[in-house]
């Protein structure tokens, strides 16, 4: 029997692994026979998130020139570089355009087909349009991958989980609100990929409470406005005006910060880039990992000060080299003193105060993370005006090269993310902070938000928004200290965010079964893997020799399955390292055939869980 590899998940991450397999196979595997099985209920390439079957109104969150699936010479990898076009080059679109997710899905499908075509004729790719529900098999023998509705498993020498974003059980607070909604005939939409949510339950003119002000909210906003026939017109001054269709609900949106994610930066990079990494690079990560007990690393105590200093270095490097007229010190002098000062120390604050006269030119990460801290508005209308002013100022700043230190911080955030992959899961706060600063919506989306606010279709709730169940009135109630003493009630609540990817509470049967059978989870609930190659760890810390996992459900999650060109993207590094380990294992296995196992699941019958997709061989 041929050597066999099963990849569960054929979206962009599975496609990226396939591309690296094709690139490395001539060196490591030669012309030996190999069967590659791809398992996914959605079409290969785009997978669930980038599938064609979604609204064309939903955009990519990156410009077309900033999206690629191909490695380049900046990627630290042992395998060969196989150049390929960016999304902009492949589509012929303006590089600064934000294309639809449908077009990104078409690009991913093309990358998938190109990767399959690059495989030698001795490699056969089998597509299984179904759902994997369990993996069984001993550590030293072939694995059995069980598919819903199929009585016999796929046999695999190796299994790679590239599962992407997954649905999850509701946490206790949301479960209580869902139960409250069921008792009172209310609507509660849990965290989900917005394109999968049934928004038809939100009626025209109905007040809807929305928790979450990130990208899931932007999708919700689009689908409930333009998606219901509303239109925008542009005035002579360039200002947008929204023309309602009459079918829109009224969205009352709040979150912890109370503001949307920062706009994408709207100008190209120019001039000298900050030399990164400087204060948080491989040497610092090596030192952290060398401490006794990796789990003893505390993010706030041990890691965040290094990140703080790295982001500050990038900010001030750009300020001093590109906007020297706004500084009072030579860069070499500032750099020497900055390097010697501790993050957050009085010495550092004094240095910045002396060298950077305008407080607006100083980097304050705490203030950025708490934009409405201490602000109180006399009434809801004053809050609406205040938030519109905040968003207008953010748009102006993020499109003005005079504030190019913001772009330097963005580049530093990418560098930091690449280093953090080696440290494993450090909790949800960092990922939220990264997305808030570096992965916000395109500028046009925030201009639409302003128009919707002026039209009364979107209403802002403020910071630290809480939602409670009003048992007496049978409604949801939202409150925020931004407007003391006021509240908003509604019969509908939308949790506008993706589910938390924890292995204990995911709805993915395969991942939950692995956890139940001994796979390790981090304190934050992610699947624990070896950061070097993605092997799944057990609770004793031992890597499984035949099971691998990559993606957002693991503690080695990278910023995304595709990335900006020339940024040494963590996902590309991971894909290459894993592909090379897979091929080396399969090469050695081909030299020493393994006896076939008897494929009998623990229950004696093939698993058939509810809510799974039928298999189409």
UniProtKB/TrEMBL annotation:
<feature type="domain" description="FAD-dependent urate hydroxylase HpyO/Asp monooxygenase CreE-like FAD/NAD(P)-binding">
    <location>
        <begin position="6"/>
        <end position="165"/>
    </location>
</feature>
<dbReference type="InterPro" id="IPR036188">
    <property type="entry name" value="FAD/NAD-bd_sf"/>
</dbReference>
<dbReference type="InterPro" id="IPR052189">
    <property type="entry name" value="L-asp_N-monooxygenase_NS-form"/>
</dbReference>
<dbReference type="InterPro" id="IPR038732">
    <property type="entry name" value="HpyO/CreE_NAD-binding"/>
</dbReference>
<dbReference type="Pfam" id="PF13454">
    <property type="entry name" value="NAD_binding_9"/>
</dbReference>
<feature type="region of interest" description="Disordered">
    <location>
        <begin position="547"/>
        <end position="570"/>
    </location>
</feature>
<protein>
    <submittedName>
        <fullName>Adenylate cyclase</fullName>
    </submittedName>
</protein>
<feature type="region of interest" description="Disordered">
    <location>
        <begin position="590"/>
        <end position="617"/>
    </location>
</feature>
